[in-house]
Amino acid sequence: MSVANGQYVTVGQEVGKVGSTGQSTGPHLHYEQEADGVNQPIVIDGVALRYSSTPARHTSGNCGGGGLKLGGSPTDFSGDGKADVVTFTHGAAADVYAATSTGSGFSGTTVKWNDYFALSGEVPSSGDFDGDGKDDIVTFTRGSLADVYVALSSGSAFSGGVKWNDFFAVGGEVPATGDFDGDGKDDIVTFTNDANGDAFVALSDGSEFGAGVKWHDFLAPNGEFPAVADVNGDGKDDVVVFTQGTRGDVFVSLSTGSGFAPATLAHEFFAPGAEQPRVGDVNGDGKDDIVTFTSNADRDVYVALSDGAKFGPGVKWNDSFTPAGEFPYVGDFDGDGKDDIVTFTKNASADVYVGLSTGSSFGAGAKWHDLFGLPGETAF
Ligand SMILES: [Ca+2]
Ligand SMILES: [Ca+2]
Ligand SMILES: [Ca+2]
Ligand SMILES: [Ca+2]
């Protein structure tokens, strides 16, 4: 904090800096304005901030999924070739709702797929861990327990959570999923994301994840943003690292099937600052590309296509998609082989918009669902 308790402040004065402490998963600042215990409207840089829906706490709601380093994961829970969406309520209920794609919308507003999974503070993700063609869900407790639970998809529900690893992604590490050995079953990776920059992988055997093995000893250090993608299209998932900040460098570390090769610079200025980087094969050539959402008043979406080793120039594929505060993601929602974009507004109306890929641009956002991914939930 930049000011003392009880200090008088004026418009334009710095009251605190963004940081990452406690249970947080990314830089953010808790901020609230109260008068006699009642929340007052907050506007910062012309953007109105909402409050959490939890009545016992008056906390700004800008600390939700936006801080999570979720770069992309498979979400075809029904196994029909079209990506679906899922939301984790966390809190006491810890419910999981999924809405499946019809190719032109998401259906199933209130279809609960699991009623106790991914408690508050845990990091959920998705992948096909048993290799049956239907994507499953995983949750990383992190902290000192560092347990990993999987709930397999039946195509219309997720099973009860089963512990697949009992020591992986410790403390505030950044976990992700991908098929790193190319056997058709998605595995897990965790980045210590600190000065050590270690990356550990635990391979799936279809019913559990093996012990974590160090696959790289300096990848995505110091809060950089790691994502998992098959950049060279060989069937083994690789790691893409966005340094963000003022450099905006992008590094790629290819999977050898048993380790990650030395990282190479693959793009020189992409997803700088607080932009939201993602990965996916947006032109359908079998090689995963990089996407960034400026997530500001410009609402721009830029793409850089993979040539198998590097990413080409950044090109604007949509100029009005994701304003600040929303959570964008990537998936092939219409099943044409080209990954599309989705955004969860994460406000009171909790709308979900999709922009379909033409192979060289994303179409205008169309509302595919009108109440999904409420404030405080993790939806992707
Ligand atoms: Ca695998
Ligand atoms: Ca690869
Ligand atoms: Ca591609
Ligand atoms: Ca598509």
TrEMBL record:
Residues 2-37 form the M23ase beta-sheet core domain. Keywords: Signal. It comes from the Bacteria. PANTHER family: MAM DOMAIN-CONTAINING PROTEIN (PTHR46580:SF2), SENSOR KINASE-RELATED (PTHR46580). This is VCBS repeat domain-containing M23 family metallopeptidase. It comes from Streptomyces physcomitrii.
